[in-house]
Amino acid sequence: QVQLVESGGGLVQAGGSLRLSCAASGLTFGLSTMGWYRQAPGKERELVATLSSGGSTYYVDSVKARFTVSRDDAKNTVYLQMNNLKPEDTAVYYCAATKPWGLNFDYWGQGTQVTVSS
Questions:
Q1: CA atoms within 13 A on the CB side of 88
Q2: Rounded CA separation 94/22 (Å)
Q3: Mean pLDDT in runs of 10 for the chain (118 residues)?
Q4: Phi, psi (deg, nearest 5) at residue 31
Q5: Could you tell me if 6 and 20 are in contact, meaning their C-beta atoms sit under 8 angstroms apart?
Q6: Can you point out the beta strands (E) in the chain?
Q7: 33, 41, 69, 104 from 79: Cα distances, Å
Q8: C-alpha dihedral over 20, 2, 25, 77, to 10 degrees?
Q9: For 60, phi and psi rounded to 5 degrees?
């Protein structure tokens, strides 16, 4: 059974930083692409960043140069370092994973709230 457990969310002032973590179990972590999504109230879920097993990354334009996704395959954990946070980054952040070599995000965490105050 695959489980993804996010942590690290919280309340921060604009310009501050947070690091989200997502611990995976029951998954061949090193072969999966990991992703971070977010959903703000009243908005659709948005893909924020991805990191493939080979190290390729993707970032949505609004977070480029501010957010960094990384992974520690030894710990089965993916991270999202968020710097220079803005109020518009306020959302529930979800970790997601593909099956080994998969293209679709089949597994999801429960989400962690990030709130950025102005």
A1: 4
A2: 9
A3: 96 98 93 96 97 96 98 95 98 97 94 97
A4: -105, 0
A5: yes
A6: 3-7, 10-13, 18-25, 34-39, 46-51, 57-59, 67-72, 77-82, 91-98, 105-108, 112-117
A7: 13, 23, 6, 19
A8: -30
A9: -65, 150
